[in-house]
Fold each of these.
Amino acid sequence: MTSTTSGWNFWPLRRKPKTDAAPTTPASAPPPVHDILLGWDIAPRDPLLAYFQHHSGAVEVNRLNLDSPALRRLKEEGILIVAPLINQGEVVGLINLGERRSEQEYSSDDRRLLDDLAVQAAPAVRVAQLVRQQQLAAVERERIETELRVARTIQQTLLPKELPARAGWEIAAHWQPAREVSGDFYDFIHLGDGRLGVIIADVTDKGVPAALVMATTRALLRAAAERLVAPGDVLARANDVLCPDIPPKMFVTCLYAVIDTATSLVCYANAGHDMPYLRRAAGGVEELRARGMPLGLLPGMSYEEKEVVLQPGDTLLLYSDGLVEAHNPEREMLGFQQVRGLIEQHSGGAALIPHLLAQLAAFTGPNWEQEDDVTLLTVQRQTPPPAPGWRILGEFDLPSAPGNERLAIARVVDLIAALPLTPRQIDRLKTAVGEATMNAIEHGNQFQPDIPAHIAVLAAADALRVRIIDHGGVDAIPTPNAPDLEAKLAGLDSPRGWGLFLIQNMVDEMTVTTDGEHHTVELTVKLEGAAT
Amino acid sequence: MISQPLRAETRHTPGVAIIALHGDIDGSEEATLQQAYAAATQDNADPVLLNFGGVGYINSTGIALIVGLLARARKEKRPLLACGLSEHYREIFEITRLSDFMQTFPDEHAAVKASTHAG
């Protein structure tokens, strides 16, 4: 602030800023008292301020008798006259006059001039103060934004760059960060022999500390997953390593699933994360519940492990809080039941994601302040498309346990119920399916319970086809010879070996193919009568 | 299709030993069949009639057991007869040529009649 030749100095009252940092004043060599900008604040409760709120107009300092530290200091500094700057009932500054250079007294004209000046100057001073405050607030916002940007960058580098590609499987992901960084992340881990690890996790808190915990957790989970097999063990190990180092009151919820894309078995464990949903192609939505505490709270935790088999067309949905806890303008939460309902009304697959997002947008309305990251992951076991002219009536897997051919027969009979088959054709098909499934279970899959036999039933306008697939494609396909009953009766041949022969005689066509890994037996029955 | 374990009842009428079968015939039922055959054929040289009236399911391993039974009967020069087969399983007996070696009848009465006539 400039001084005038008559020795005025202009001293704006600085409001105590909201942060404790004192604003800086320009440093300069201390000029004579008349020219300085007084670099100190008046305390908010100082009686001088209260006095000035009730007495506008210049006043001689020596005439005031207040127990005011500010007044005492003004007197010490040689101030003779003080005129308050009042704006909207608040004292925003003081004009302080020291001794005139001429050492003359201040006249009443001088005092009137001073009063006019104070009235004019007060609003301008107030505006300058407001501008200053806004600048400071802008600096602070910029600082926070920078930290959030750093955290967001850390977070983004941790997310997978690509979605895994697996034949017969479709994987989709959607990550929608909140304005303030929250702690969602997801990851895919390529374990050996076709298994795929899928992680979805949520770190409490926001900003750079949360982002660093996320980076640590991700690395821990990867290291554990590559070494240990069982999802429960992986979470337990990650939890034990995370506990000592995680900042207090922070924790990570995490769902870890291992998908065997060859057998469609999903094994999963959950550390306090939202439970995944399984949309069954055959109908219905299942909750996948496994119990466990979030990571980072208490060491020595154990995590329940569960398993589920995905049938063709089934979709697994993993998601984060941001979906379930989204609020509408009436402050109601979307909630688990609603989400489950939304899944149920949709057929599944990657398209489930845009469906859920559209429903979410409809629920929250256009002015939604997204509070939390929204992360959605879908994993679908696909049904392979049939050849032209054929449609799939149904597909299913059966564990390779002795006797399960009876289940195969029953399910196939259900699936063909609408087709124009004679009772004789149905009986023959039942025998053929039973025998082919028995072969798949015993010879193809060696009775291994975790390697299923896969059965598909297809129909065309004039034919029905049942496809039975096992994992014995490495072995040679036996050439079907007609069994010699007489040799068997004479004890020259085993009484067994009727399976393939029966199948061939029960259906119109039987083909056997192998792709090196799988045997596929296809049974075809011609439909008599009208097209379906 | 609920699977049912095999139950075998052995009876005797003059000139024929009857084994009435109820349930499913697959490879796991060898003991049941062989024991029934042994009980039916003890101390006599009569033909054996397998009554399949109560059987709803026979698979290829079950066929193999019947082949084994037939081989045992032929060794003893004992005719093995069958009755009560559904149309489907009668067809299977024909395809496998079992019916060339085991005479089949619609029911027990016809089988016993033919057997005692022959005997």
Amino acid sequence: MKPVNTLFGITDSCVYLPVNRTPVGLVMHRLGEQGAAMRISEEEYGSGGFREVPEENVCSLEEMIYEASAPVLRRAAERGAQVKAILFASVTTDAAAGSLFARLLREFSLEDVPVVRLAEYGCAMFHLSLRLAYAYFAGAAGEDDAVLFVTADKARSARERSDTYMLFGDAASAASFRNSPAVRHRVLASGMKADGIAYDLCPERVRLYFSTFYLSVRQLVRQVLRQAGASMNDIAMIFCTNLGLGTWSILAKILGCPLELFYADTLAGEGHLHNTDIVMNIEKAAVSGRLRKGDLYLAVSVGFGGYYGCSLHQYG
Amino acid sequence: MITEAGAAAVSVLYSGVVASCGRQHADEAVIELLERNRRWLSGLDVLMCGFHVQSDPTVHSCAKIKSRLRLQDALPIALDGSGCMAFRHARLLLDWLIAEGSCRKALCILGEPEERDSPDGTGERAYRITVLRFAGSRHEITTDSDGEVKLDGCDS
């Protein structure tokens, strides 16, 4: 990575959330009737801080993508930013990216902009996109260039609403990466680990993943802090994939930080929204004033099967 | 002396059709192909995979290939649903990583299933696979004592 005096980071973001919220108990009951029961009880799942699941009943996935991306593209155009690529992640669709972005690309005259759909990283796609965007800006990028990260999920079946360990809500979000003084969330250091231990559902590999993923997160967080010459004492907040209070308690213990450092305001009403978690949590904390200018924070993503991302940011 | 990263050089290491022989996934055919050609794997920084159709969404083919071939140092990147744009998208991302300098050598595997006629007329599943090598080139720019600038290219 380049030295930390780069201007690379997030300049803008937008999150689309469904109006409808379904209580966790109702969703779990429905899954049980569909033969996709969770492995834990409603009470145990609720102890993780989860209360409701956003479920989209009106918009199509394409419309959700539009609602999240259009504001970011509009503001980018107003600021003279040139979108050079869109990195797209979705766990819940097999539609070609081109068909999902057709209206958006046409409206903003971006038909020549490649929409690259990334796969396999589960809920760590934010950091893969950040890593790739960083590489772009470290090369021959222009100062007005932007790379968009867009993610959207809408469950079409019981299997996409739950993997029997967690419930997944519907949402879409977009974040603009630039190398510019306009950056609001500067990236000071970042790292990725992708061992993909559990590359299929083989029980032995899944068990190995669950028993080791905490260590991989710790290794990565320490690496990123060391890279920036920072320590956990410098960190104002941790924005992590919404894995719940139980998992976060273990992460907090092995990272040597208080659980309260983990931003938990969206656990109850939004829960886990695949790759939208990180962008949503950062945006809500900034808007509400929980994040203050100058604050250093960590973004930590965990993708099921062995994909991890960590980045150190400075706000404002 | 100044050293600058240049555009990636692309070589086609393999392009052909592999019979499924009962294999459920293209990744199994790829693993066997790469096992037979281990020399392609040395010094790999990135393993990129783009399978036109993923027959089993619960299998992460790129991670599976990385794990089975013990490519610990290679960053796996999987493209999904790129279809006929797969090469363009792979090239885009690998050019970024190579220009940045973090990737000197990458393997890109593109694959799609294909139905072929078999002698007994029942039809046979096969996989069309292409293996591409992306290698970063570096230019050495030197100035001699007379002030003449020379440019020498070399592969990473």
